[in-house]
Structures are given as C-alpha cells and as structure tokens.
Specification:
Helix content is 34%, strand content 29%. With 306 residues, the chain is of the alpha+beta class. The strands form 2 sheets. Strands 1, 2, 3, 4, 5, 6, 8 and 12 form an 8-stranded mixed beta sheet that branches. Bound molecules: adenosine-5'-triphosphate. The site of adenosine-5'-triphosphate (ATP) has 22 residues, from helix 1 and helix 2.
C-alpha cells in the first residue's frame, strides 16, 4: 500500500448534445447524449487511514458538498473497498474546480477520481472493466468521468461508445452562484411536456445522436458543431432560471459561435472558433460582471498524476 497521498485528476464535462426520452416508471429518462470532457478539474488526494474520512476545498463554493456518506467520492471509496475485500480506510481530500450543482458532473468526477485513487492506494488493480462497472453503480455520469475524451452515452447516459473528435474545441463557461438540482430540472421538463401546447417538444420517438453532431466532432469543426448543439433540458433550466438567457445572448453577441446550457444547468457553455476568440468572449463577459472561464476539450478522464 502506498504511504504518500495518491493524486488523481478528473475532468468536468459538457453535454454537446442531450436528447431526453420519456420518463420511465423507475423515474429515469432514456438519454442520447454526447459528452465532452473539458479542462476544468477535480483533484482528489487519497491517503492511508484506518477510517473513511473526507475534506473538501477548492476554487468554487463548496458549502453545498456533503461530507458524509451522501458524498459520491466517499461512496465510491466504500464500494471499492467492499468489492475488493479491502480491510482499510482512506482519507480523501477533494479540491473542487468544477462548480457544485452546475450541470458539469463535478460529483461524478469526484467519484471516478476516488475509484482510481483508492485502486492505486490499495493496490487492488481491478482493471478498467471492473472500475467501469462500479462507476455505473455510483451514478449515470460516473463512467464518462473515468473515460474522458468525447463519447456517446445511451441508456441512462452510462452506456458509452467513444466518439472520434479531431483537434480541440474552445469553450467559454459562464458560472452561476446558485446551482440547479438535476432531478428538479428533469421534473420541470416532464411538467412542460405534459402541458398542452408546451414549449418543450414531446419526447423524441427515437433517441439517436444526429449525424451532424458526430460529423462536426470528427472533422474538428466548431463552425459546424455550433448550429448542431442541442439540449432537451435547456428549456426546463431556463424556465427555472430566466437570467441564463441573457448570458447565452451576450456570449453570442460577443462573438461565440453558439451556446448551450450544460447538462441540467445552470452553467452555460459557449463554443468559440479558436483560443483567441474564446479569450475575447471570456473578457467581455467578465466586463459585464459575470464569472467566465475559458476551457478546452476533449481532455482525458480520471488518471493518476505525477
Ligand atoms: P449531475 O451529475 O446530476 O448533473 P451536477 O453536475 O449538476 O450533477 P454536482 O456538483 O455533481 O452537480 O452535485 C449535485 C449534488 O450532489 C450536490 O448538490 C450535492 O448535494 C451532491 N454531491 C454528492 N457528492 C458530491 C461531490 N463529491 N461534489 C459535489 N456535490 C456532491
């Protein structure tokens, strides 16, 4: 067993495309999504300990992060210990760079990072396939945080197929101080769909990622990808948070090619032509008093550093 902390870094994600099917009896919706991992990271440090303990700090407001068994990283560590028959604990320190309840899968990234970190700390060497299985049991977005890059997600989003993405895509994120609850946003979408004449479309009959999205990614062409960005949850997030519309509109006005609510929001992701344009859009958004960050994707999934 390692005696120094194991440092694992895992990325946040943007859903470049998110098609949401009807709600199933178990409460889940079928999804057709394309994830892209971006350069906004969670850093998890795992140290030997007799008990399971956790501390959280970071660049974002961490006051909403649970420190007990509700924390996904803690659940990941315990699940791995139980599965591999490890009779030891771990101290996890999480340094968060991904906004909490921001629609960027920060908690899922922590869970993926904790799996990889504990696997290295304890020397359990479960291998990619077993880790993926554990990840899927922890949450629908956790397998992607392990995997990283760009991938198509089906089922609940946890059945992954790698997608070819050439080059790099530059994004400007507009962060919100107030998070959005993922179940609440799905609930809002269900309500809108149940209303007569609702602005939200009925659930699509077939859930497929449009060819235009996959072709634009394959070609590494941000100009082709921008008009194909789509998120079925966007209308529900905007109903709850109308202030987000102005961030989208300003981003486009300042030169972004297109924009989208990331996952269940409230983070806005604006796609730009190149790094220079992204820096300009970021600066102009900051001049309006917003918190804007230039990131790029795709980047790798959870991995041991140093
Ligand atoms: P989702 O993956 O559902 O889209 P999100 O990206 O919007 O979620 P997260 O920051 O992952 O948001 O967390 C959502 C909620 O999960 C938080 O409000 C918090 O109560 C809980 N949570 C559990 N573990 C963590 C964690 N390690 N970091 C942040 N939040 C966590």
């Amino acid at each position: 067993m390692a005696s120094r902390p194991v440092h694992v870094r895992a990325p946040g994600k943007i859903n470049v495309y998110l098609g949401v099917g009807p709600r199933h009896d178990d409460g889940y919706h079928s999804l057709a999504t394309v994830f892209q991992a971006v350069s906004l990271y969670e850093d998890v440090y795992a140290s030997p300990s007799d008990a399971f303990t956790l501390e959280v700090d970071g660049d974002v407001d961490v006051s909403g992060v649970p420190l007990d068994d509700r924390n996904l990283a803690m659940r990941a560590a315990k699940l791995l210990a139980q599965t591999a028959g490890v009779d030891a604990g771990v101290h996890l320190r999480i340094r968060k760079g991904v906004p909490v309840a921001g629609g960027m899968g920060g908690g899922s990234a922590d869970a993926a990072a904790a799996l990889v970190a504990c696997d290295a700390l304890w020397g359990t060497e479960l291998g990619a396939h077993r880790l993926h299985e554990l990840a899927a049991r922890l949450g629908a977005d956790v397998p992607f945080a392990l995997h990283g890059g760009t991938a198509v997600g089906s089922g609940r989003g946890d059945e992954l197929t790698p997608a070819l993405a050439r080059g790099r895509f530059d994004w400007v994120l507009v962060l919100s101080e107030q998070g959005l609850s993922t179940p609440a946003v799905y609930g809002q979408l269900d309500l809108l769909r149940a209303q007569d004449g609702a602005v939200a479309d009925d659930p699509p009959m077939s859930l497929d990622v449009p060819l235009a999205v996959l072709q634009a990614l394959r070609a590494g062409d941000a100009r082709d990808l921008a008009p194909a960005l789509l998120n079925d949850l966007e209308v529900a997030a905007l109903v709850d948070r109308p202030d987000l519309t102005s961030a989208l509109v300003d981003g486009i006005r300042f030169g972004a090619l297109g924009g989208i609510v990331s996952g269940s929001g409230p983070t806005i992701a604006l796609l730009c032509d190149d790094p220079d344009q992204a820096r300009l859009v970021q600066d102009l958004l900051r001049d309006t008093g917003r918190t804007a960050l230039h990131v790029h994707g795709p980047v790798p999934g959870a991995r041991v550093m140093g």
